[in-house]
Specification:
Two copies of one chain form a homodimer. By secondary structure, the first copy, chain A, is of the alpha/beta class. The first copy, chain A, has eight helices and ten strands. In chain A, the strands form two sheets. In chain A, strands 3-2-4-1-5 form a five-stranded parallel beta sheet, sandwiched between helices. Chain A has a five-stranded mixed beta sheet with strand order 6-7-10-8-9, sandwiched between helices. In chain A, helix 3 packs across helix 4. The longest helix of chain A has 19 residues. Strand 6 of chain A pairs antiparallel with strand 6 of chain B.
Chain lengths: 232, 232
Amino acid sequence: MSKFYGIGVGPGDSSLLTLKAVDTIKKLDILYAPEGMKGKDSIALGIVKEFLQPHTKIKTRYFPMSFASKEKEVEWEAVAKEIEEDVKKGEEVGFVTLGDPMIYSTYVYVLKRLREKIEIQTIPGISSFSCIAASQNFPLVMDKEPLVIAPCTMPEEELKNLLYRHTNLVLMKVYKNFPQIVKQIKEANLLEYAILVCDGSKGTEQVFTNLEEEGIEDKISYFSTILINKNK
Amino acid sequence: MSKFYGIGVGPGDSSLLTLKAVDTIKKLDILYAPEGMKGKDSIALGIVKEFLQPHTKIKTRYFPMSFASKEKEVEWEAVAKEIEEDVKKGEEVGFVTLGDPMIYSTYVYVLKRLREKIEIQTIPGISSFSCIAASQNFPLVMDKEPLVIAPCTMPEEELKNLLYRHTNLVLMKVYKNFPQIVKQIKEANLLEYAILVCDGSKGTEQVFTNLEEEGIEDKISYFSTILINKNK
């Protein structure tokens, strides 16, 4: 019976694909690749390009990234419908997604619409934070501590509470509110335990150990993550 | 110049190795494999066995897992010293570790002792929770929510707070205090959003969607993880 495969392709470097992801990509009849804002999701297709076989048909589909829009619901519904029809025709169908499919991935919106209808296999991928931590030899968490992974698009007060309560954090999407986030980290006395990594795994990686460095705001990129570990 | 490579080998299934991990393992002169309690860490060597080359020398070393013992400090120090000497002799030296090297891995104890002394490259791996979530098609976190990864060896009061404050959690090491942990999840009104997975990625995987199932305590294994997502 044919299946739908949700494939985590990792953060950017093709060598961080798993063997399972590569084997799966090679056997697909159809591969869906999400296309979003800022070129973000065309990256997923780029990562697997060298492993694509001539018989695999590529379907690039637009996935709006904005929150709470009616538009995105309509788009996801349409893509899910199309995938369902392809699988029911007997095709092996894949969907590539950056990082890990179960952690902040648009793949989940498709998965939720399809899991009662067709057989689905999800293949895990390397998360951007695992990649960044490895490249910096920066331990994220040990022993009995919890690790908190938080998108900084959350309400300011919630972020503040996380910073006061925890010593091991990954802060994602720090680009938009950067000065405010640095201020909050400082107030929680965690600044000396934090590093900022921009464009990890993209060949243009930049690392900042001083988050108050002059002019840092002009240097950081959309793909910026802060790692904090008080016991590193 | 020769290097020390910390290699994340994922949770158990060899096909979840990254291409980079496989390429690195193939070029090693020496591979260190940690051996711990309950056969846990010999698994790391088992995962990469099929990719080992005849020229690679295997050094299995004992890594005590108990907390706060003087014994483990002595053992880690000795292994770190031996690795340092091997690298300084010009050997390409690797160390395999389960899951991801930067998340609850004994590799960090070696890394901390060596990072000022030799060149080190860490290669990320698939975490056990990513693998379990994928195999269950269970989304871990979306949008603006934080994801909390917590070892249940932490103090009871801290776990209770986490369960009251968050909706997306991965609870690891739930084996020891299982009835108490289930009670806490129930008190936080999260029981219906939780699943328990034992031996994920080991071929003997068991999944429980009812954590109060009769006799569950006798069925669960040492490698048990609970996933919670209120919006799954």
